[in-house]
Automatic annotation (TrEMBL):
<dbReference type="GO" id="GO:0004170">
    <property type="term" value="F:dUTP diphosphatase activity"/>
</dbReference>
<comment type="function">
    <text>This enzyme is involved in nucleotide metabolism: it produces dUMP, the immediate precursor of thymidine nucleotides and it decreases the intracellular concentration of dUTP so that uracil cannot be incorporated into DNA.</text>
</comment>
<dbReference type="GO" id="GO:0046081">
    <property type="term" value="P:dUTP catabolic process"/>
</dbReference>
<dbReference type="InterPro" id="IPR033704">
    <property type="entry name" value="dUTPase_trimeric"/>
</dbReference>
<dbReference type="Pfam" id="PF00692">
    <property type="entry name" value="dUTPase"/>
</dbReference>
<comment type="pathway">
    <text>Pyrimidine metabolism; dUMP biosynthesis; dUMP from dCTP (dUTP route): step 2/2.</text>
</comment>
<keyword id="KW-0546">Nucleotide metabolism</keyword>
<dbReference type="InterPro" id="IPR036157">
    <property type="entry name" value="dUTPase-like_sf"/>
</dbReference>
<protein>
    <recommendedName>
        <fullName>Deoxyuridine 5'-triphosphate nucleotidohydrolase</fullName>
        <ecNumber>3.6.1.23</ecNumber>
    </recommendedName>
</protein>
<keyword id="KW-0378">Hydrolase</keyword>
<comment type="similarity">
    <text>Belongs to the dUTPase family.</text>
</comment>
<feature type="domain" description="dUTPase-like">
    <location>
        <begin position="14"/>
        <end position="143"/>
    </location>
</feature>
<keyword id="KW-0460">Magnesium</keyword>
<feature type="binding site">
    <location>
        <position position="77"/>
    </location>
    <ligand>
        <name>substrate</name>
    </ligand>
</feature>
<keyword id="KW-0479">Metal-binding</keyword>
<dbReference type="GO" id="GO:0006226">
    <property type="term" value="P:dUMP biosynthetic process"/>
</dbReference>
<feature type="binding site">
    <location>
        <begin position="64"/>
        <end position="66"/>
    </location>
    <ligand>
        <name>substrate</name>
    </ligand>
</feature>
Amino acid sequence: MYQVKIMKKSNVLLPQYETSNASGMDLRADLDEEIVLRPGERALIPTGIHIELPAGLEAQVRARSGLAIKYGVGLVNGIGTIDSDYRGEIKIPVINWGQEDFLIRPGDRIAQLVICKYEKISWVPVEHLGETQRGSGGFGHTGIE
């Protein structure tokens, strides 16, 4: 298990795993007052935390599935990446894709944070790529059944 340095600038709870086999930790809104997110509106929600990831790890900010299905609230950019050299406050770019106003209160769980390993690569320019059964087929090439 990695140990990751975390600094918080408020009384917000630290991200934590809610179940023993959860891969994501809930991130909470660090707000002084409630925010109403109207349909189609976007907002950048502070979390009050800063992290120092070791090289070779990234933090992925992901939507909470309950907020997405119940209220239509997700992330503007789908999944956000926090690189190991970023030291600023983690902020969550949320959007209300729903049809009703959505209220975000101080301390609400608004996203989740998943820590992942990654590999660096170097490109090798070539004239041809190896053959596969799939080839260049994409976007539904295998059908729907």
